[in-house]
Design brief:
The protein has a domain of about 220 residues: 3-Layer(aba) Sandwich (Rossmann fold), CATH 3.40.50.1820. It contains eleven helices and eight strands. The mean pLDDT is about 90. With about 325 residues, it is α/β, with parallel strands linked by helices. An eight-stranded mixed β-sheet has the order 1-2-4-3-5-6-7-8, sandwiched between helices. About 45% of the residues lie in helices and about 15% in strands. Helix 4 links the parallel strand 5 and strand 6. It is globular and about 80 Å long.
C-alpha cells in the first residue's frame, strides 16, 4: 500500500511539473505572439537600464503629458489622446512593466517614478514646460514632479487623484496591502499562462483583470507598495497656496466608489477641495455621471478641462 501511495504521489508531482512547464512555455509564446501582432505604436526610449514606451501626437505647445493610475495602461487614454491632439501636443507613456515598457526588478518609490518620467521626457526630446494630467495614483507622481522640477510644469489637471488625508489612512493602506497580496498570486498564476487560458472562456476584464502579463501585475503590486514607502513627512496634507498661482483643474467623481473600494470615500470630497486650494488659480469640477474612471465615463469632460487649461496657459491667462 505504501509503495502504491508513493508511486501515485510521484506521478502526480510529475504531472504537475509538466503542466507548469507547459504553462510557462505557453505564456512565453503568447507574449512573443502579442509583440509580433501588436508592435509598440510609439517609441521605446532608454531611461537607463530599461526602456519606456512613449506615444506622442499633435503639435501645439505646451505639451500635455498624461500619467496613469496604478495598474493602468496608456491605452486607456488613447481615445482621449486623439481628441487632445486636435488642439495640443500630447504624450502618453507606460510606466516600467506595463504595456510595451520593460520591466524592472527592483522596488521603487513615487519619487523614483517622477524622476524616471523626467528622464524619459529629457531623453525623448519632448520640450517643456508641460501640462501634467494625472489619474488616480498618478496624481502623487505629477505632484512630486512639480516639487522637483517646478519650472517644467505649466499646469496640472488632476483626474480623481487622491489627497494625503484620504490615501494615507490606515484603513486604505490596509486595503491596498490586501489587494497587493491578491495581485501577487495573480502574477504568479499569469507566469504559467493561467490568465491566457481563462481568457479563452471568460471575459476577465469584467472582473477587473484587464492586465494579462505577469510583469504588469508585478508592476501593479509595486505601485501599491510604493504608498507604504512614502515617508511620514510626505503623508501630511500640503498647505493651501503651496502651488502659488499655477493653473490647476481638479476633477472628482460624482458617483461613489463601489464595493470594497468604498473605503476610499471617507475624506475624499474634502481632499479634492484641499487639492484645488493648493493653487490660487484653480477650478474644481464634479463629474456627476462618473465613477473613478472619469476619462472613460465622461471623456469629453476631461478633454474640455485639458483644453481649458491649455488655452489659458498658451495665452498666459489665469483660469479664473
Amino acid at each position: 500500500m505504501l509503495i502504491l501511495w508513493q508511486q501515485t504521489f510521484s506521478v502526480t508531482v510529475l504531472i504537475l511539473l509538466l503542466l507548469l512547464v507547459l504553462g510557462f512555455a505557453f505564456e512565453q509564446i503568447g507574449q512573443r505572439r502579442d509583440l509580433r501582432l501588436h508592435p509598440a505604436p510609439g517609441r521605446l526610449i532608454s531611461v537607463g537600464d530599461h526602456r519606456l514606451h512613449l506615444l506622442c501626437k499633435g503639435s501645439a505647445a505646451p505639451t500635455v503629458i498624461i500619467e496613469q493610475g496604478a495598474g493602468e495602461l496608456s491605452s486607456v487614454w488613447w481615445s482621449v489622446q486623439d481628441e487632445i491632439a486636435k488642439f495640443a501636443s500630447v504624450c502618453t507613456y507606460d510606466r516600467a512593466g506595463y504595456g510595451w515598457s520593460d520591466a524592472v526588478g527592483s522596488s521603487r518609490t513615487v519619487e523614483d517614478r517622477s524622476r524616471e518620467l523626467h528622464t524619459l521626457l529629457t531623453n525623448a526630446g519632448v520640450q517643456g514646460p508641460y501640462i501634467l494630467v494625472a489619474h488616480s495614483y498618478g496624481g502623487l507622481i505629477v505632484r512630486d514632479y512639480r516639487r522637483k522640477y517646478p519650472t517644467e510644469v505649466a499646469g496640472l489637471v488632476l483626474v480623481d487623484t487622491p489627497e494625503e488625508s484620504s490615501i494615507f489612512r490606515k484603513a486604505v493602506l490596509s486595503f491596498y496591502a490586501k489587494a497587493r497580496m491578491m495581485n501577487r498570486v495573480v502574477s504568479l498564476a499569469a507566469q504559467f499562462g493561467a490568465l491566457r487560458v481563462l481568457r479563452l472562456w471568460l471575459p476577465l476584464d469584467r472582473y477587473g483583470f484587464w492586465l494579462i502579463k505577469p510583469a504588469e501585475y508585478s508592476a501593479l503590486c509595486d505601485d501599491l507598495a510604493s504608498l507604504e514607502r512614502v515617508p511620514a513627512s510626505r503623508r501630511a496634507s500640503e498647505s493651501a497656496g503651496s502651488l502659488g498661482s499655477l493653473p490647476v483643474i481638479v476633477m472628482t467623481h460624482g458617483r461613489p466608489f463601489p464595493g470594497p473600494f468604498a473605503v476610499l470615500e471617507e475624506n475624499w470630497s474634502e481632499g479634492q477641495k484641499q487639492l484645488a486650494a493648493l493653487s490660487s488659480d484653480n477650478i474644481l469640477i464634479v463629474a456627476k455621471n462618473s465613477n473613478h474612471m472619469i476619462q472613460c465615463d465622461e471623456p469629453a469632460l476631461v478633454v474640455d478641462a485639458i483644453r481649458c487649461i491649455h488655452t489659458a496657459v498658451g495665452a498666459g491667462n489665469p483660469l479664473v
